[in-house]
Design goal:
alpha+beta; about 100 residues; 3-stranded antiparallel sheet; 3 helices
């Protein structure tokens, strides 16, 4: 996908293209899904997942050269908020670059 599109497009273009590829493999893909954030049982705002695949995997798309600590933290918080994964601070995180 990245080779075909090339570099320089917005995050939205790459996200949409990735969704197309995932759907070609008959995977269920939700784009731009809002994630409610709760504090003390009260919704205090929302975040947004780039893609959620098969209601199990959150895909965070980036067009930057690297993935920084803030991006990892955002993904961890989204996972916790959705209930897709309960994590502890000592969990290791694997990042896959495409």
């Amino acid at each position: 996908m990245a080779k075909e599109l090339g570099y320089g497009f917005s995050k939205e273009i790459y996200t949409n293209a990735l969704a197309v590829e995932l759907r070609k493999d008959n995977l269920k893909v939700a784009e731009g899904t809002p994630i409610d954030i709760f504090y003390d049982g009260v919704c205090v705002g929302t975040s947004q997942a780039d893609l959620i695949v098969e209601e199990k995997v959150i895909v965070a798309v980036t067009v930057d050269d690297g993935i920084d600590a803030a991006s990892i933290a955002q993904c961890q918080h989204d996972l916790k908020a959705t209930g897709l994964y309960e994590f502890t601070p000592w969990d290791s995180w694997k990042i896959q670059r495409f």
